[in-house]
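User: Hi! I'm a student and our assignment asks us to look at how structure tokens line up with a sequence. Could you show me two examples?

Assistant: Happy to help. In each example below, the sequence comes first and the structure tokens follow. Example one:
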Amino acid sequence: MPRFDLATIVGILAGFGLNVAGIWMGGSPLLLYWNLPSVFITFGGALASLVVQFPIRDLVTFPSVLAHGFIDHRLEPHKMIANLVRYAETARRDGILALEAVTEEIDDEFLITGIQLAVDGTDPELIRSMMDTELEYLSQRHQRGKRMVECMMDMCPAWGMIGTLIGLIAMLKQLSDVSSIGPNMAIALLTTFYGAIGCYLFFKPMSQKLDLRNAEEILMREMIIRGVMSIQSGDNPRIVSQKLRIFLAPNQRTQVT
């Protein structure tokens, strides 16, 4: 059952909180660090660059890509291994056609596809090829989403610098007014500040989190492929278990029953 990833939420809130605490402890009014035009330039410019770089069909998925970083799908490989071993026991005891009934209790479409192909007597090489192809396209979709996040990661500091240049130009036009130099310089630097916060507190960590999510899902899919192929070949359930345990870290293998 998917649920919110507390590590992501706590990390972002802690980062903002520490920055706010540092500003407050330094004696500066928090409102000095808020400037709406700087927000528009930094994040609006970054979003504009994102729109230029990617087609509409990818852009509409961007909110769900970001949401994926906040959701922990709780992939549990040890439970998947236990299920695959149970399916192997059913196939050995009642024949592989008996697995057609167990697909009704499975909520993983990838696993259902593999079992149905095995039940239909599909050639093992064809099963492997079809499931590998689906896995490859899954990884490609994940990488497209990650590239959108990386685009925002790169563009936020760049647009922050552009905003700073815009502010400096405006400041230099009023150079004769010495009293305005300090406040105008502070406002000009806020876009760089926003760009750095957006990049290093949100988009760069989010990119790394999506990498971890992709690796976890690919590992689970590889495990399913190995399990389905082993079941179709008629392996003993104990052999199926041993083949799949190698996907787990040593300290996780004891969780497999």
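Example two works the same way, sequence first and then tokens:
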Amino acid sequence: MTDTTTLLQAARSTPRSISSTRALRFTAAGLAAAFALAACGQSDEHAATGTNEGVASTKFAGTALVVADTTLTTSFAAAGVAEPLQQATVSTKLMGTVNAVLVQEGDIVRAGQALVQIDARDLEAKAAQVAAAIADAEAMQKEAATHAARFTALYQDSAATRAQYDAAMTGLARADAGLRAARASNSELAAVRSYATVRAPFSGMVTLRMVDAGSFAAPGAPLITLQDISSLRLSVTVPADVARHVARGQRVQATVDGDSATARIEGVLPAGAGGLYTVNALLENRNGARRAGSAVTLVLSTGSRQALAIPQRALVRDGDLVGVVVRHNGADERRWIRIGDDRGALVEVTSGLRSGETIVVPAATNTGGN
């Protein structure tokens, strides 16, 4: 390689007949050529080094895996809401003042437990009247029975006429009817009195309290709302092509407020809108950990398809980039790929990798970009 100093000496030894301008031009050209040659030499050295580094590849520790197409189930994630299996707003048939409200919102109650007490003192007076009416009817029935027995004996001995006998029997029948009516009134009063204590129709949670002590209760007016959340009904809306793959009793994966669970299909019914169907699934919730009104997602199977899937542990990440280590001809290289659905331990590869290629699966998940 020509040295810059030698070129300068050559320039000084140029004959005087050459003009100073030409000498300067020659010198400048020589210097430029020298720098260009030096630069070319350095570039060649770097290129050779880069080529050598590319050939000497590093082997990654792990298990070699030949990827192949596999059958993946296709699914449809439908969003919806969790509803209580039973819900009721209790009221009363009485009109009166609320004496006491025995529960608070959020309380868990059992079937038959008292919720609200209503003032029913007027029914106490009515109860006394009914009791007196029953006693009177019983006395009249007893007297009529005695009278009928007497005239039956007289009629059999021909000591009483047929008309007297018939009148005695009619009086007994009326007395019996009067006693039944009095007792029926007592049963009716007992039913009405039961409305003074409003009870839970089923076990569940108090979700809304609409009265306080001192409030006036009217017949049919809502007092307490109760929900049975021992089971939740998960309701989602799906298109027809998804609904035809769903059957009653089928087990499906569900997500309720981010928590995974397994639900059972209760049924499929038209949603009332064009081509849409409502899918209901039941989810056990005996400990009450999940609340009605929660956002839910049902993963419904819609068939299967062929796709390329690899273990999650084989993925190498560097920021937003996702790749794998591909082994080819004894050399390992990192290759960036595009992934699709996450299927737990497996992930679908949509591009960047072909069936039949070999990848390296490390013993532990590699989360760095080394």
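Here is something you could point out in your write-up. Residues 77-83+227-302 form a domain with the Elongation Factor Tu (Ef-tu); domain 3 fold (CATH 2.40.30.170).
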